[in-house]
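Lab notebook page, bench 4
Experiment: in silico fold of construct C2
Operator: M.H.
Input chain length: 297 residues
Purpose: comparison with the prior construct
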Amino acid sequence: YMMIAPTIQQTRCKAWIQRHLPTDGSVSLSDVTSMYTAICVMGPFARVFLSELTDTDLNPKSFPFFTFKELDVGLANGIRAMNITHTGELGYVLYIPNEFALHVYTQLIETGQKYGIRHAGYYAMRALRVERFFAFWGQDLDTTTTPLECGRSWRVKLDMDFVGRDALMKQRGEGVKRMYVQLILQDHDHEIDLWPWGSEPIYRNGKYVGATTTTGYGFTFKKQVCLGFVQNFDDRGIAQAVTPEYVTTGQYEVDVAGIRYPAKVNLHSPNLPTRYPDKERLAYRATRDSVVSIRGN
């Protein structure tokens, strides 16, 4: 098995796994981070573009979302590819043995010229992910966040035994005390109004219910987009269960530097318009009630 950890969580993940390894030595753990270079190839032409460099069938039927294949790219072999995206567009993450990294990178850049390939940095990716409701570890999620709270229970096989399953089943029965939401600011002029930067108070029907975690300008919405958690406090300030109905029936505001802006709330990943429609993009919705399966061309 090869496990991929968020970049800033490498040490924490390794320590957690080591604590839970069998004591009989039947399972070992090695950190191979320094052996691979990771390159993300993302965008509406990602599949067609990468198909020019590999003989592996990248059709969604044989290589669906959230799966792994080992493939050759530009005659370099042993490349571990994941059909996954950090932006909501079609995309692949390539884990390349270091000795092939420069060669593969050069091949990607040269072949990608006719597709308008370009480098993208952190802020570009953040602008894309906040629109598509993609959470980042360390900013939106941490060790106290459960899949039920952030709409990602579809990634958990509750019919199997694992560390923490009993706690999740209990939480599912009792209800979550907070819920991850997307808020799109209204009546906010990005040219003259102050931008949100995270930790802004969220109000529901005039009452404080939480704070933002990540914010960014959404170029599709042409509005500021905030991600954050919403709670349900009673008159004593004690958190009560939060339901989808509670989230979707409220009137929301986000306080940016002392000014409250009305906001539209989304509980699930929105369907964004695109000039390049592809059925597989439906599988990239990060927040949902169940798994979306895409078959065929």
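Observations: The chain is about 20% helix and 25% strand. The two ends are 29 Å apart (CA to CA).
Next step: discuss at group meeting.
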